[in-house]
Write a structure and sequence with these properties.
OB fold (Dihydrolipoamide Acetyltransferase, E2P); single chain; 3-stranded antiparallel beta sheet; mainly beta
Length: 75
């Protein structure tokens, strides 16, 4: 299945906006593509400091989300 990797950093204030109604999260992939996916998929990765790390988004050929995985923090 196709996948795309991206780095994401969202502080607590940005996360609060997501919980107040922003439905989609957006990022730019490592290869320059813009990706959009449901913000609710980020919930397992939220900490008190927000979200930060490298992620991989796997999707079907039709563009439907299969899985969002954390690949850890970038050093």
């Amino acid at each position: 299945m196709p996948s795309v990797r991206f780095y994401l950093r969202l502080g607590p204030d940005e996360l609060q906006r997501m919980y107040l109604g922003v439905r989609d999260a957006q990022a730019v992939s490592d290869d320059g593509r813009r990706v959009r996916f449901p913000a609710k998929e980020l919930r397992p990765f939220v900490t008190h400091d927000g979200i930060e790390g490298q992620f991989e988004l796997e999707f079907t050929d039709a563009g439907k989300l299969v899985e969002l995985r954390s690949l850890g923090r970038k050093n």
